[in-house]
């Protein structure tokens, strides 16, 4: 009865979301329109807190207007692309707003990129200029001869700390701005919902990074719904945002959401678990935009006084795994955890509107879960050649129907976009977006009949061993439950003479010499079925992650258990044993000659 009453209270937030209509294509709905509206209402309120700086909405709007006029007077037109290569700081937001005010497209580059990936992202965008933070000038300088921007006037250098000097190949942006010419631009009235606001690149874990297209309509709609039913914040709130603004979580779920209601944002260059709660208290951050790995880092820190009575009420993000969810919510006394699921290039958004536990929530889009053969990496079909739907709570491949109410914007690369579309799925002529993710339905109790879902794994990450499907995420959650394991990266590796892939896990240890392998082996045996137990364990020095803290698997998968190739220690479970042993050359030879008995 208590849950039923709580759910009735949720209705008043859900109804506006269900009634919400996406902006019409030619409507003046954009990031810059939202920002100017908030500036008109809350101009003297804080927009951004950053290190020693505080910017009000009015100050940021004037700076963005001055920058926009400079860009326009120097040849940047509506629809032109401009690279933005800068760490999180106020001028990142100001630069993006300036571009949006004149209808230009921000090409948001991952700040960890160097060399060939950086060259690819810049050249594939066909950008006319590059805004570069002083802190990222060096990696850009190293590829200058290989990119398709060459004129000195096209490199707009934005000062940072005094340790950086203006390079000879760029101009100082701020020195060229007329800060007195700071009124809103007439051009902004020509920017519409259908115009592209920015390109956000994929992580590149399955090939070269691809630029996902984000129109203004998507930014505005996501921000509106997330603030209305997710955070439930207003102009008096402050959001903690340490996620990179070149990524959709930090940008759409973070900065854009705050702008939508005139809230403040506390932004950081990088996440720090040791200073998180102190900063949350200092800036009274009532909201937090997260990814799951950050929550795990915070859980692994020793309890502190700073976390007690902390101000965070609601958090919105993605990737919070079930093994962390309850502990995080209870330890830090968080009222609302609104897990989101969606891809930058995708056409559906799942949201945990009802504040249920361990779910990505529901969606208004037309979706289906398909039967999928993990071993053969293929979708199963019926005798008529159409796909088969999952009819129970088993994991299935999530697809989203493409239509007027679920437009697939895809990538700038049309060939790459087409590869993400499945056609003739249930009938001739239909088209669906292939998310590449395995999802399952879950029972969350009373939810007004709305189906709820839970993320299981990426298609390429789930593997098959002993005729069973093994989820890397689910095995990782179990391993992370052992007291000395902080973050296990699980993946499948080929074993000579064996079908499928054997499980392997990599993690670091603070005290390798003191690690109790017998106790750990017993823990694995007691908590995982035999087919899901990692056959190999690799002890690494440091976990390699993407800029958004996603675990990198490809290199580890390629290295496998080849101790002649890697310097790390590798342990293994032999077929006749339940205790992990150090892998040596003799046993490796037996494995490679198919004599090990796996």
From TrEMBL:
Residues 35-378 form the AMP-dependent synthetase/ligase domain. One of its GO terms (biological process) is long-chain fatty acid import into cell. Pfam families: AMP-binding. It comes from the Bacteria. Keywords: ATP-binding, Ligase, Nucleotide-binding. PROSITE patterns: AMP_BINDING. GO terms for molecular function: ATP binding; long-chain fatty acid transmembrane transporter activity; long-chain fatty acid-CoA ligase activity. NCBIfam families: PRK08279.1 (NF006134). Belongs to the ATP-dependent AMP-binding enzyme family. This is Long-chain-acyl-CoA synthetase. It comes from SAR86 cluster bacterium.
């Amino acid at each position: 009865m208590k849950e039923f009453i709580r759910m009735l209270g949720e209705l008043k937030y859900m109804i506006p979301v269900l009634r919400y209509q996406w902006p019409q294509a030619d409507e003046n709905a954009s990031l810059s329109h939202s920002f100017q509206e908030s500036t008109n209402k809350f101009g003297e309120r804080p927009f951004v807190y950053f290190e020693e700086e505080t910017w009000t909405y009015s100050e940021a709007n004037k700076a963005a207007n001055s920058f926009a006029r400079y860009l326009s007077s120097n040849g940047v037109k509506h629809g032109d692309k401009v690279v933005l290569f800068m760490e999180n700081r106020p001028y990142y937001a100001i630069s993006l707003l300036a571009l949006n005010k004149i209808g230009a497209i921000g090409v948001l580059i991952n700040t960890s990129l160097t060399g060939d990936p950086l060259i690819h992202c810049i050249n594939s965008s066909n950008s006319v200029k590059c805004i570069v933070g002083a802190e990222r000038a060096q990696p850009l300088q190293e590829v200058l001869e290989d990119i398709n921007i060459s004129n000195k006037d096209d490199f707009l250098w934005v000062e940072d700390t005094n340790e950086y000097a203006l390079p000879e190949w760029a101009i100082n942006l701020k020195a060229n701005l007329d800060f007195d010419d700071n009124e809103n631009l007439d051009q902004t009235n020509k920017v519409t919902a259908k115009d592209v606001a920015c390109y956000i690149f994929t992580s590149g874990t399955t090939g070269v990074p691809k630029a996902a297209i984000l129109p203004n309509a998507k930014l505005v709609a996501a921000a509106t719904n997330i603030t209305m039913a997710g955070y439930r914040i207003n102009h008096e709130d402050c959001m903690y945002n340490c996620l990179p603004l070149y990524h959709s979580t930090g940008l759409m779920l973070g900065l854009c959401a705050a702008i939508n209601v005139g809230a403040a944002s506390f932004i950081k260059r990088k996440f720090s678990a040791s200073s998180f709660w102190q900063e949350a208290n200092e800036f009274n951050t009532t909201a937090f935009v997260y990814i799951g790995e950050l929550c795990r880092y915070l859980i692994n820190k020793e309890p502190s006084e700073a976390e007690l009575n902390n101000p965070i009420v609601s958090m919105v993000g993605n990737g919070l795994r079930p093994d962390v969810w309850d502990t995080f919510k209870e330890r830090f006394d968080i009222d609302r955890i609104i897990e989101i699921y969606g891809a930058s290039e995708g056409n559906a958004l799942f949201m945990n509107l009802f504040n249920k536990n361990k779910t990505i929530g529901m969606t208004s889009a037309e979706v289906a879960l398909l039967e999928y053969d993990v071993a053969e990496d293929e979708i199963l079909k019926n005798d008529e050649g159409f796909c088969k739907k999952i009819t129970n709570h088993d994991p299935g491949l999530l697809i989203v129907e493409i239509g007027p109410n679920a437009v697939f914007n895809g990538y700038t690369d049309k060939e790459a976009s087409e590869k993400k579309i499945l056609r003739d799925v249930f009938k001739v002529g239909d088209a669906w977006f292939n998310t590449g993710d395995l999802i399952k339905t879950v029972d969350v109790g009373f939810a007004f009949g709305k189906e709820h879902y839970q993320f299981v794994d990426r298609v390429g990450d789930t593997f098959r061993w002993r005729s069973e499907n093994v989820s890397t995420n689910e095995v990782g959650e179990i391993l992370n439950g052992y007291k000395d394991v902080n973050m296990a990266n699980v993946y499948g590796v080929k074993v000579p003479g064996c079908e499928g892939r054997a499980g392997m896990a990599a993690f670091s240890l603070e005290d390798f010499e003191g690690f109790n392998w017998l106790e750990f082996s017993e823990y694995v045996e007691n908590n995982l079925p035999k087919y899901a137990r990692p056959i190999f364990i690799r002890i690494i020095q440091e976990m390699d992650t993407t800029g958004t803290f996603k675990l990198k698997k490809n290199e580890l998968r390629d290295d496998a258990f080849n101790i002649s190739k890697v310097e790390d220690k590798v342990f293994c479970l032999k077929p006749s044993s339940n205790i992990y042993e150090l892998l040596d050359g003799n046993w490796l030879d037996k494995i490679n000659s198919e004599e090990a008995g796996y």
